[in-house]
Amino acid sequence: MAAPGTLQELARSHVQVLGKGTGGNTKSECIHCRKQFTGSLTRQLAHLTGTSGNGIAACDDPILIQDHQDAIKLEVERLNRLQRSKSGSRASSSQLSGSDSSEIHPAKR
Prior knowledge:
Helix content: 40-55%
Distance between the termini: 39 Å
Number of strands: 3
Number of helices: 4
Radius of gyration: 17 Å
Strand order of the largest sheet: 1-2-3
């Protein structure tokens, strides 16, 4: 199986979306422990990686914990680094061209 290209693809390979929640949230079910929850991508990844502080319990499926949890954490870190490097290269190219990135992305002020 190829490595996921985005954090959303990573989460969707372990969490089934059941429907739309409120705002940007989704109703989801972990395919490992079958817990259902409503939340964002951040909460889905926190559940899978066992990260505390996001208002969601860690997945307690022993197979996930033993075989996949560390790999999921590493993949989240890899995708975050990739995303940061892409956003950093965009900032560098706009600095070189002399353009103001706030004109292109007004929400990023």
